[in-house]
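By convention, each integer encodes one residue's backbone shape. The lines below illustrate.
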Amino acid sequence: MALRSFISHCQALSLGLVAACLPLSAAETPTFKPLTADYVGEGAGASHTVGYFFLDIDSNGDGIPNFAQVKDSDDLDGDGIINQLDDDDDGDGILDVNDRAGYFQADGTAAGEAPPAMPARFFAHGEAAAAAGLHANDYWQFVPNHFYEQKGAAYSDDSGRSFSNLFQHPGAYLYVDRNRNAVPDALETALSGNDQMPPLTVDRHFLAGDAVAGADAPGLLGLWQGRLTGETLFYQCDDDGDSSHTGAFFSYNPYFQSGRMPGIRDSANSSDSNPDYPLYFTTDPVSPAIPNVLKEKDARGVDKWRYRRLGATISSAREIVLFAAVFYPYQGSQVNVHYSKAAFNRYSQGQNQVSPRDITGRHYGGGNCDRVNWIPAFRNLTDHNYLAECYFGSGTNWRDIADFPEDPNRMPQAHNPANQAWVDQWANLSLQNQLVNYISLAKWFDETSINARSVIAERYGYDVGDLDRAIAIRYQNFRAPQMVTHSFSVVGEAGLTSGVIVGIEDLPVPSDNDFEDVILVLSRPLGAH
């Protein structure tokens, strides 16, 4: 296959999220270390499950995503033959000359058909890989190309139910978009009456739901033929003064009623910044089930194994997306799953949201330039005039600084390019980029049942209360953001400590949007481009 060019590409939208860009240098020299997730606290009455999946495929297991290995000199399938000389670049047993038509099935009603694909722009290096190919959407060549499982016994779930129509590499489901709504089918759930988590948020051998096909489907998380698709980090995010869950958690959690995982019941009734179930399904501090590196106390004198989930060893070049399943009835659904990549969230833009709590940032408004907890109402010219006057001086109107587009799909333009960043921050005039909240990091965790700010300060030596930074929260292309993150790095007695604080909002607007319903600290960034 003659590849003519390769350009590293990663588009990041800040919006309070940490972007996992994959520069080519990082892909060529990946580092490998475990993903650690520390539970900090919660500020909600719902029950939650949290995990992650990879937003890319690494079919040869070298830690480099397939889309970053499309050059002539690369060896995509790791067989020792560079792509330029390899007749089967991805090593799926189908010659490249036959592979380019799309997915392959030997016989049956779907023989030779290619399912509709997700746009290449959603994947790091995806557009570069597509552009490097010889045919349109040639990036499909760079994933395992068996439409259906072609060998071995049919896959079965925990109850012995068989599923024969599986990709050889389940991560390939992320590239299928049969209803063409720019959300992978493996992340789809029903718009109402939903009582299941989607396949790529459920462990293999447990039952999930294929909302597009309207049928049951197997969970796709875990190890498949030695390749990790992702993992569940916390089966239960609960830390409060009772020993109970919401009814939806009891009824619809795919793990709760399993004989294989009996230990996820709410077993503690104290708020101590530790999940109310044993992460390693044991409370024996010397149990071999607990990793030895966690059998020590932290700066607070707490055993690390009580709150730290030591995940799999993963490559720094892999792009991950965090998910949070919320077991709570909302708008006809019993289970609501949110993602750190807002484009995959199913909730469309709603009303302008101003939090009723004292957790939004300080800004001017309503004729009072010192007013607290205020953001301009969506497409409200009077509010935008207040903004302009307070920032640029008495008598200044918004139209003196920028246009006020009649088209809600168009972003406003500043008359002076030097003011464009300010206009973009406070415009709140475009449906595609609608401002819904403004959070002060210093006040971020004030409403948690446990003092999350103190826990973070004591554990890591980092106090968010010292920050004067605020984050503007916006919809991304009509999709609601449900997570915000803040990276930190401190040097203390134990040396360098760094991480990413993740705040999860468990229900979309018109909820309180305080992003403190679940609080975690991860050891690496999230995919959010």
Q: What stands out?
A: The CA atoms of residues 491 and 497 lie 6 Å apart.
